[in-house]
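Weekly modeling sync, notes
Attendees: AB, CL, MP (scribe)

Item 1: holo prediction request
CL wants a bound-state model with NAP before deciding which constructs to order. AB pointed out that an apo prediction alone won't tell us much about the pocket. Agreed to run with the ligand included and paste results into these notes for async review.

Input as submitted:
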Amino acid sequence: MTYHFIHIEDPETLSIQEGEDLTCCADEVVIDVAYAGINRADVLQRMGFYPPPPDASPVMGLEVSGRVKVAGEHSGFSAGERVCALVHGGGYATQAIAKAACTLRIPEGVNDLTAACLPEAFLTVWYNVIVRASLKAGETLLVHGGVSGIGNIAVQLAKSMGCNVIATAGTPEKCEILQSLGADICLNYSESSLTEQCQAHGVMGEVDVVLDMVGGDFEQFNLECLAVDGRIACIGLMRGGQSTIDLTQLLMKRATLTGSTLRRLTPSEKARCFEEVETHMMPLVASGAMNPLIDRSFDLGQALEAQTYMASGSHAGKLLLKCG
Ligand SMILES: NC(=O)c1ccc[n+]([C@@H]2O[C@H](COP(=O)([O-])OP(=O)(O)OC[C@H]3O[C@@H](n4cnc5c(N)ncnc54)[C@H](OP(=O)(O)O)[C@@H]3O)[C@@H](O)[C@H]2O)c1
């Protein structure tokens, strides 16, 4: 079988290239890719703003679903098993290599399209909301970008834990989607100030954890909406990487401001999180309690069109590439 992958000629030109079938190490698997998830980081990589680490595949794509084609000797997987995985680049292709420790079996009843939405969102949400920000059952979580590929999973995980969920989006239509996902309070950031909207709902100063993918001028609001001992987990900078904040709020609220990027987690941290999401998150999808929000999928050859659509910001939910 021939291996095909998307090559970046220049930021506005992507081509499909051909190569030899992939091989893997003993602790890895080669996956025949059915779908690849599209992430913001891919858009940045294409534009030259997010070069992959030296040991990563130069091909875009951080997550895939499909079937194991080759199972490394110590991988614990067998050829033919349905899996989804976080990959070290290389997802925009018909084959991809994944560490066995970053590969999850797809439960029966969960299709490949849905499975490709999971690895990046599961890891990002679990590591930031649960491990770093320690969200507990019954607490209040505020999720910025609630209908994003990442945000919708955070909303649904928190609801499954019995948390109160506040989420933001930029249009009334997206706020309606948030409500259908179970969010208790939906804030339209394009309408009026988030502070005023939280005050109207009586939740200013009541938020235990903020999952923040926006930063910039919203950082001060993030601090102000926090309860005492509140935590902010920063994962993205959609409104910019610079902000001016009143540190008095940090002191008075004993607040914690943390952040992370998945690519910088050590292999052992990733492996530990994968064990935890397999135990705590995958069963939610298998039982239908969590339904990843999907906007649409594109063919592999439409990768540029798909990324242009993501950059436009008009999508709601996950975008995917059909690779198989
Ligand atoms: N740190 C990590 O390890 C990690 C891992 C994965 C993803 N991320 C980050 O998580 C974010 C979501 O990723 P994704 O792949 O799910 O992308 P996505 O679906 O495109 O989501 C982007 C979200 O940001 C919101 N947004 C965009 N511009 C905004 C603005 N000016 N003000 C307020 N909200 C704005 C959008 O909300 P509306 O559509 O409602 O405007 C949208 O929900 C990205 O920033 C990504 O870089 C970080």
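Recorded for review: Residues 137 and 161 are 5 Å apart (CA to CA).
Action items: CL to compare against the apo run; MP to circulate these notes.
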